[in-house]
Amino acid sequence: MGLFALVPGWLWACLLAVLSAVSCTQAVRLEHARVEVAQLRQAAAMAEARAAELSRSMLVKVAEAQNEAKKREAALRAAADGARAESDGLRDDIDDIRGQLAGVTGAAAVERAATVGAVLKQCAARHQELAQRCDGHVSDIRTLMDAWPTAGPDGSDVK
After folding, report:
1. pTM (2 d.p.)
2. Helix axes 106-147, 9-101, angle to 10 degrees
């Protein structure tokens, strides 16, 4: 007779039932943990996909903004070149008028002076319009900069 024979059968049955119950409980807990891990992995994958989508979207927007900025720069350069050419032309015209003033009559000189005055008046009006537009753009930029978020949804600094 061995050591196991000393323990009654009903005690072995109870011990086996307890071990079986503990084993089943642990199996259920393990299955719940596996399900939870699978759900967490799925949520992480979805979050990564969303982050990648947002990143791609932001890159597209940045590229579009840079392309638009290049177009604006080209248009501004063209406008500046046109204004420079027009200014040079006006300067040449004024130099021509100065050279011709010595040989013209008083009435012709008055007429030319009135024409030059009208041109200068138009230039001054255009410069005022341009200054107002520039001030408006500066104000818009300041508004956008002031309204730009400084913290993300989680409270982290985004500057």
Report:
1. 0.50
2. 170
Chain centroid, CA 144 distance in Å:
11
Burial 49-88 (b: 16+ CB within 10 A, else e): eeeeeeeeeeeeeeeeeeeeeeeeeeeeeeeeeeeeeeee
Q: What is the pLDDT of residues 61-105, one digit of tens each?
A: 888 888 888 888 898 788 888 888 888 887 887 778 777 777 778
The answer to whether 104 and 96 are in contact (CB under 8 A) is no
- Write phi, then psi, for 151 (nearest 5 degrees): -140, 140
pLDDT at 38: 96
CA distance 58 to 64: 10
